[in-house]
Amino acid sequence: MTKAKTMTDSRAGTVAVTERASPKGSINLRIETQTRQLIDDAAAVLGKSRTEFMIDSARALAIDVLLDQRLFVLDSARYDSFLRALDNPPAAGPRLRALLRRTPAWSA
User: 96 to each of 44, 84, 105, how far by Cα in Å?
Assistant: First the structure.
């Protein structure tokens, strides 16, 4: 089962995020005492449990990371410039050809 949830992102405005309803799992972490205390203090300030705070924080950061990879916002002048660059790529020179022949780091 999936459901859509609306989130607000300061850079992109309102963003729809799809959530999958699934059984809950667990994550076990080993952290230093000082880090645990820092998390507990921050959670207390927000009136949350450690678990709530960690899940909310990790989820928000995960969304930001994914949005940074998939979404970017441009004003209309920069958007037009971006489209022109896509429509008129530079000619492939020797450095580009060499780059395209290399095995990507994630495939090695």
Answer: 53, 20, 16
